[in-house]
Amino acid sequence: MSETSLNVFTMNCWGLKYVSKYRSERVTAIANELANSPEYDIVALQELWVYADYELVRARISSHLPYAKFFYSGALGAGLAIFSRHPIIGAEIHPYSLNGEPMDVTGGDWMVGKAAASAIISHPILGHVQVINTHLYAKGGEDGPEHKRAHRLMGSWEFAKIARHAAELGRYVIAVGDFNSIPSTLPITIIRQHADLSDAWLVAHPFSASANPSSTPQEAIDDHGITADSPINSWSSGKNFDVQTRQNFGKRLDYIFYRQPKHSSRADGIASIPTLRCTDCRVMFTHEVGGTTYSHSDHFGLRATLEIQTPSNPLPSASLPDVEPSFSEAQNAWSTAPAASSSTPSELSDAVINTILESLAQASLVSKRRSRKELSIFVMCLIILVAVIVGSPWFPHSWISPIFMVFNIFIAWVATTMLYEGFIFGNWEFNAYMNTIEELELHQKMLEMERQ
């Protein structure tokens, strides 16, 4: 514990009631380990769906993290919680515009209402720090076409706007969570470029992106920050993943990003206010729960130490790692420029914006076609209901009537669901795409005007 640094921890707890195996035992183990780690200043958890689990964690760590916030969203809750050593003076949650389809019950993203949860923390040196915790839409993977990941692209764009706006208000930003995206994908590019966020892992491990593939799962964790789908994790071991995941011994899906307030440097480039710099970042909770054969979660945790450098007390250069590598070194196909400092505005490149626009345009067409199909099913169900009702007096046997009554109830349910999916949700999804497309087109025109 030190006022000259911030120790940040994030983890996806996999805590869905009735579904996640050994949920109570695992959450208890996570809480106990956090209780034995008094050095943490900020802890952000995802998939902490059950409020009783949140209360358990809060009670165990309240001695050194007395301030906490559980965030509500959707039908089942956002599963997001933030714990802090320093006072939380404000909090809000921004549910993402699109979170999957209502009919995708197994996915569950629409029901839980995934969101970006923010807590404003009052720090004795930094002042206001906005901590943003999120869990982006899961489905879509990393392979194209991009329109399959359109809901995640929408979430990443909204997340980036929140982080950017916080910095423009003069706040430090710490953005963490399970982003369901590997570093080379478009959602991470959107977040890093538009919000001008530094990736704590790449700052602390500047050669991670260009390092050779690891030869063991443990090397992949230590060298590349693998947090999910690792063979070392009991919940991932033995699963049949895609070739790239198997070759890389998992994926890096969990991140700790940070940035300074906008205009944090003077014209001569010298910092005018305290600055943050990641000096250490490591994957945590890679061991099994004590006395068992299972891991704490299907994700590992991630910890970062952010040193606070004041203008009057700069950190020794020997204590600072090399600068973060460029996007191209991170194998990013949409950008080759290095991440800018907070004094130099970072913007989405034309290539990134055009890729997003193309993806959302394709997704809007898919949405329209699906809506028409679902409305056609709705009309067909109405025709079937009318035919059954009209023909019921001519049923040859009375015992057939109860069967057709149950059949009518089922058809009526299908018709109602298709009406909601095709008309209400379909129009909502299409309008969300079009609003974002127009917003990005305006943003692109603004950037063109600034370059002229």
UniProtKB/TrEMBL annotation:
Segments traversing the membrane:
375-394, 400-420
Tell me the pathway.
Answer: Lipid metabolism; sphingolipid metabolism; Sphingolipid metabolism
Tell me what topology the record assigns in the membrane: Multi-pass membrane protein
Q: What is its main location?
A: membrane
What's one GO-annotated cellular component? membrane
Recorded hits in InterPro entries, A to Z, give: Endo/exonu/phosph_ase_sf, Endo/exonuclease/phosphatase, Sph/SMPD2-like
Q: Name one GO biological process term.
A: sphingolipid metabolic process
Q: Which GO terms describe its molecular function?
A: metal ion binding; sphingomyelin phosphodiesterase activity
What family, per the record? Belongs to the neutral sphingomyelinase family.
Record-given protein name: Endonuclease/exonuclease/phosphatase domain-containing protein
